[in-house]
Amino acid sequence: MGDIASSWWMLLVRGLAAIVFGFLALIWPGITLLVLVVFFAAYALVNGVFALLSGVRHGARSRAWLIVSGIIGIIAGVLAFAWPGITSFALLYVVAFWAVFSGVAEIVAGVHLRKDIDNELMLIVGGVLSVIFGVLLLIWPGAGLLSLVWLVGAFAILYGIAEIALALRVKNFTSSPTVP
């Protein structure tokens, strides 16, 4: 339990990064593809690095899934930075598959964490939101980049709120007394 509670701030940073990214996407709906790629790449890298760090610090039950989620985020961010001129259609699929795979990894991590923490539901909720978001993008790819901007912004804000709620819940374990 100490490992998870001591890294609560990593979840908080991930949540704050998601909310900042979401608001930037909503504030500038007419942004160019290049700016969207940079915003997405930066968010995916930050999210991936902190998920990877959390995975390295956690116990055996959740370690692998958090590491997988982190690696997926880092790869998605690097790919987006490497090819900033990709079309909105290609970006849509990068975002969709990243959301589905990282969401599944977070759902599995949440299920594994149920023995370590109470109310692991926030990690699962974040994962479910991620999977739903990715599937919706795959079902309606022709919605266009502007729609993607709004979907990405709304998803990121909701996901960030779920991550912050989890961080605050986990942080409570650092200040609660342990019973011998």
Automatic annotation (TrEMBL):
Keyword field: Membrane, Transmembrane, Transmembrane helix
Regions that span the bilayer: 7-27, 33-53, 65-83, 89-109, 121-142, 148-168
GO cellular component, as recorded: plasma membrane
InterPro entries: Acid_resist_chaperone_HdeD, DUF308_memb
Keyword Transmembrane: yes
UniProt keyword Transmembrane helix, yes or no: yes
Positions in coiled-coil regions: none
Protein name according to UniProt: HdeD family acid-resistance protein
